[in-house]
Amino acid sequence: MMKSNRRWPLVFALALCAFYLPHAPAEAAEGEEIAAIDSGPIVRRQLLHRSARFELQPMATFSMNDAYVRNVMAGVSGTYYLNNVFGLGASFQYGALHPATNLRENLEATLADNGELGRLDSLSYSYLGWAADVGFSYVPIFGKFSVMNSLFSHYDLHLFGGMVIVNEGVEGSSEGVIVDDGIAGIRPGGYFGGGLRFFMSDMFALNVQVRNYLYNRAEISSGNANPQLSNTVMLSVGLGIFLPGEVKISR
After folding, report:
1. Potential cystine with 227: which of 1, 121, 141, 216 (Cβ 3.0-4.6 Å)?
2. Running DSSP on this structure, what letter comes out for residue 18?
3. CB-based burial, 151-184: b 16+ in 10 Å, e otherwise
């Protein structure tokens, strides 16, 4: 009778082992799956519009804060995105048009009306002949929006900065007058800015950008040019062409 009583604890222990052992591998596998999910990205199946893609952008640029000469430029930029956030690029812009501002026209009209023709002929104005820059791009914000729940588009807010070289040209108040070459020439400097990009498709996007050139400049001179560090703010509108045309999708 004593031997029978001693067997019951052993039988009970074996039954517990038989019940729990089949569940151990399943629980371990479930734990590994949860850990894999926790360590993965928060957003899955995300469209990577920029990652490992090259953006070619023809654009038109307009100066915003020139006092005497407006600058209308045509250019092109190229940016390669290392991932969906960071990119490296360069751009070149050529000064196509340089219309006079109202301030310049009023100044010259006043000098002419007052008979100060000598002072009028001594005036020289600088303008942007061309500009070339190289720098980086950073995309801190991107997402998707809809208009009236019918039109959907992806967008991003991007920032950029780097080094720039500006070639300043010079013109006089009229044809044939002597100009001050001291306000012309190559001007190295820096730039920074930001923009909004709206994707019209996987391959094409509309870009609106504002960039600020920082370099030594004198907008006007009467023979004693003294270029100083100044801000030249430019507004550009461009068409971004992304290559290759297919968008990557995150896991």
Report:
1. 216
2. H
3. eeebbbebebbbebebbbbbbbbeeeeebbebbb
Q: Tokens 């023979």 appear where?
A: 223
Which residues does 87 contact at the CB level (< 8 Å), separation at least 6? 50, 55, 79, 80, 81, 136, 137, 138, 139
Q: Which residues contact 164 (CB under 8 A, 6 or more apart)?
A: 131, 132, 133, 188, 189, 190, 191, 213, 215
Integer Cα distance of 83 and 49 in angstroms: 9
Span 76-99, pLDDT tens digits: 999 999 999 999 999 999 999 999
Backbone phi, psi, residue 77, to 5°:
-130, 155
Q: Largest Cα–Cα distance in the chain?
A: 136
Which residue's entry shows tokens 């100083």?
228
Q: Can you tell me the distance from the alpha carbon of 11 to that of 199, in angstroms, rounded to the nearest whole number?
A: 70
The mean per-residue pLDDT over the stretch 30-45 comes to 52
- Quick one: DSSP state of residue 19? H
The CATH number of 46-249, from 3.30.450.180, 3.10.310.40, 2.40.160.20, 1.25.40.10, is 2.40.160.20
